[in-house]
Automatic annotation (TrEMBL):
CDD domains: Ribosomal_L22 (cd00336). This is Large ribosomal subunit protein uL22. The lineage of its organism: Bacteria, Pseudomonadati, Bacteroidota, Cytophagia, Cytophagales. Part of the 50S ribosomal subunit. InterPro entries: Ribosomal_uL22, Ribosomal_uL22_bac/chlpt-type, Ribosomal_uL22_bac/org-type, Ribosomal_uL22_sf. Gene3D superfamilies: Ribosomal protein L22/L17 (3.90.470.10). GO terms for cellular component: ribosome. The gene is rplV. The keyword Phosphoprotein does not apply. Belongs to the universal ribosomal protein uL22 family. Pfam families: Ribosomal_L22. HAMAP family: Ribosomal_uL22_B. Keywords: Ribonucleoprotein, Ribosomal protein, RNA-binding, rRNA-binding. This protein binds specifically to 23S rRNA; its binding is stimulated by other ribosomal proteins, e.g., L4, L17, and L20. It is important during the early stages of 50S assembly. It makes multiple contacts with different domains of the 23S rRNA in the assembled 50S subunit and ribosome.
Length: 130
């Protein structure tokens, strides 16, 4: 009962995006959306849109389950480094300084707390039946 959403080549540095991702790691989806809505950092708006996409992916995988009953939470959020655009900036005395424009890849995994509890109960019931 998991759903994944990915966002590739976001033109902000991974370090800045991790600061926002750390705010919502392990939180329930409703609380995470509220945090991201009022967070002033640039990466918050992108993460909010990605989280809504992950929720939508979960709904399409579990059409029979209700979103309110599922009690979704952010199981995993990863921010990895993306490709780096390398540029040169003129410096004094004929030199050049290298500018590295970093990007990142974000992956969010959303899961239902109720589903994990049910599967654990089913495993225990199956072991006692055998």
């Amino acid at each position: 009962m998991e759903a994944v959403a990915k966002l590739n080549n976001v033109p902000t540095s991974p370090r800045k995006m991790r600061m926002v991702a750390d705010l919502i790691r392990g939180e329930r989806v409703n609380k995470a959306l509220n945090i991201l809505k009022y967070e002033p950092k640039e990466g918050a708006a992108r993460l909010e849109k990605l989280l809504l996409s992950a929720i939508s992916n979960w709904q399409s995988k579990n059409e029979d389950a209700r979103l309110e009953d599922a009690d979704l939470y952010i199981k995993e959020i990863r921010v990895d480094g993306g490709r780096i655009l390398k540029r040169l900036r003129p410096a004094p005395q004929g030199r050049a300084h290298r500018i590295r424009k970093r990007s990142n890849h974000v992956t969010i995994v959303v899961a239902a707390k109720n589903a994990t509890e049910v599967t654990a109960e089913e495993v225990v019931n199956n072991e006692t039946d055998n």
